Amino acid sequence: MDKFVINGGNRLKGTLSVSGAKNASLPLMAAALLAPGKHEISNVPELRDVRTMAHLLRITGAKVELLDHTLFMDTEPCTFWEAPYELVKTMRASIYVLGPLLARFGKARVSLPGGCAWGPRPVDLHLMGMEKLGANLELSGGYINAEAKQLHGARINFKIQSVGATGNIMMAAVLAKGTTLLQNAAAEPEMAALADYLNAMGAKIHGAGTDRIEIEGVSELKPANFRNIPDRIEAGTLLVAAAITGSELTLNNLRVDHIEAVIDTLEQAGYTLKAAENSVTLSSTGRPLPVDIRTAPFPGFPTDMQAQWIALMSLADGSCTITDTIYHDRFTHVAELKRLGADIQVEGNTAFVRGANKLQGAPVMSTDLRASACLILAGLAAEGRTDLSRVYHIDRGYERIEQRLRSIGAEIWREDEPMQT
Ligand code: EPZ
Fold first, then answer.
1. pTM above 0.85, yes or no
2. Ligand 1 mutation target, pool 19, 110, 162, 394, most atoms within 8 A of CB
3. What is the CATH number of domain 2-19+230-416?
C-alpha cells in the first residue's frame, strides 16, 4: 500500500487543467451497453474506478480500452448480463449496469452493493424504479435478479433525489415501450451529460439537468461518440487547495456553472475568484472567514465537497457549522483532522468547527475518497510533515494528484508503505 508524504506550508502558484468527471464517466460507460457497437468517450480520467467499470464491462463481453484519456469500447460482443460481487463490492457505482443490462437482455443479475466507509447506502430507489418499469426483481444470495420481457413507460416519483437511481432508471427507460416521467429526479450535471450521450445514440430524453425528466422510449439505439464533462468536485478540491495554502491558482477546462455554490462559498470566506466560462482564478488575502454550509443536491453545496470545506474551516478566523443533509454520518475525516490539531465536534450530521491558528503535521489515515482529499488539503497547510496512509482511496477519484500538486509548488510525494504487521 502507498502513502503520501507532505511537507506543509508552501504557497502554491500556477495553472492546472481539470480532469474529466469521474461521476459522469461511470454511467456513461454503462450506457454504452445499450447500443451494440463501437463507442468513443473522450476526456475520461485515468482512475481506479474507471478501470473497475471497464473490467465490469469486459465481464459482460465488451471490449474496452482506455488510451490517453479516451475510452474505445465495442459493446457488440456483450452476451453476459451479470455484475459479480467481487467487483461490485469494490465500487458501488457498478450498480449502473443494472438498467442497461435489463433493457438490452431482458434480464440482469447484479450484486447488491455493500455499505461504504461512512455507512449504509441503500439502493431501494433503483429497485423501485425498475419495478415501476415492469421488471420482476428477486433479491437472493446478495444479488438482484431482475427479469423483464418488455420494460414499459411509467411515472416515477423519487421520495429523495438520487443521482444513481436517476441515471439507472433513465438508462432502463430509453428502450422501454412508451414514455417515462421522472419526478424529483437528480439535477446533477452528470445526469445531463448522461442524457446528452443517450440522445446522441438516438434516445429521446427531455429535461435532464432538472428535477423533471421525460424519456420517450425508442426501439433501438446506435453507438455514438461523446466528450465527457469536467470534474466539478476535482475543480472544487483544487480551489480549496489554493485557498487553504494562501495561494493563487488558475484552473482551466472546467465548467464554472457546475461549481457556482462552491465559488460563492469561497467568496463568502474572503477569497477573490475571477471566473470565465471554462476557467477560474482564485487568489487569497489571508485566513478564511468562517462560513456555515449545509450540503444539498445540485445546484446546492455538494456533499462531495463537505470534507474539503471542513479542512479549510479548521483554519478559519472564527467558528462555523457544517451540516451534511445527504449523508448524515459522512465525518470519518474529522478524527484524523483532529490529529493535526483541528478543533471540531460532531453532533448528529453537523460538525462544529472552531478555527485554529495553525495545524501541525502528523501521521493520518485515509478512510474514503473525499476524506483523503480533505487530509491532503490539511497536510498542505499544516506546519511540518504529514504522512497520509492508504492512498489507494485517493487514486479512485483524483488522477496523479500528487504530481499535479507538485507542479504548482506543493511538497508531496508517494512512498511505498510497508504492510502493517
Ligand atoms: C453519487 O452517489 C456520487 N457517486 C457520490 O459521490 C455522491 O456523494 C452522491 O451521488 C450524492 O451526490 C457517483 O456518482 C459514482 P445518491 P449515489 O443516490 O448515486 C440515498 C464521490 O465521492 N439513497 O444521489 O450513490 C443515499 O443514501 C461519491 O465521488 C437512498 O436512500 O448517491 C443518500 O442519502 C461518494 N436510496 C441520498 O439518497 C437509494 O436507492 C443521495 O444518494 C439511493 C440513494
1. yes
2. 162
3. 3.65.10.10
